[in-house]
Design brief:
The protein is an alpha/beta fold. 23% of the residues lie in helices and 19% in strands. Strand 7 and strand 8 (245-251) form a beta hairpin. Helix 1 (22-32) packs antiparallel against helix 2 (39-59). The longest helix has 21 residues, at 39-59. The protein binds benzoic acid and fe (iii) ion. Fe (iii) ion binds next to strand 7.
Length: 312
Amino acid sequence: METPQSQPARRAVNAQALIDNEWSVTEVVRQAMANTESPRLRTVMAALVTHLHDFLREVRPTDEEFELGLEFIAGLGHATHATNNEVVLAADVLGLSTLVTTMNNSTKDGRTPGALLGPFYRANAPRYGCGDCVVQDDAPGLPLFVSGTVRATDGSPLAGAMVEVWQASPVGLYDNQDPKQPDRNLRGAFHTNADGGYHFRTVRPAGYPVPTGGPVGKLLAAQNRHPYRPAHIHFIVAAPGFRTLVTQVFADDSDILETDVTFGVHRQLVGAFRRVETGLSPWGGLPAPFYTLAFDFTLEPGAQTFPKPPID
Ligand code: BEZ
Ligand code: FE
């Protein structure tokens, strides 16, 4: 700023904070953020800027390419609305969501791996008793009998644990995507018995595509990637005194396990979907054909929490 005198005062310039070359930009930006009060925000933003600048120095975008990249990011916002979060979808198809989930869910001591909550989790699942069926319509599809035990990492069975499930239908649609399905079809909450056991009947789910109408769909097409997730069932397993497990179990006979568009298929989350051609179901007296799935869960001690539903 100039003083009212005839001679403008010379302002002391911090020569360290001026740009000399492409490397000094990074240091100057880091200095500009150095007074951030929150230590965590300071660390995260310094690392983010350093890695983004290194990325740009590596790929050396033209001005047009840089604009295109910014348009892609703005497009994620424009394609985000009440029933589609394109920003989360971008994180999913770039493997960011699965990386964070994998980092935050250790498999130490035999803990079951975590998996994405996904955009289709809804609150207020119907409460069912052991062995009940979560199918509320008579749409075609082979019955699936699911059973297993919930244990702690010390091997003890957890009685009274909550096992909540949700899944897509045999045509690959969740209830809230499909006006033909009753509300909260293929969703249910159960409690384990005195031996930590749970069991329920459902219908075999199908795989399904993630939304492809926005910029993420265009990116997948440009990368020659299909937009499908393999058939899976979502689980939340929770008990007081244990860290809540959010996970998914995948059908072992799916032919796209290795190419899940969201990279969600942890090796230990592939479940044995056994097709049974003769005899009666393990409970309920239903004649074959049907499928069975046996899958156990192991929880680590910790705080019981409940995830926030991304949609109604
Ligand atoms: C899901 O598992 O429901 C899901 C996860 C990420 C993106 C789309 C769907
Ligand atoms: Fe899903």
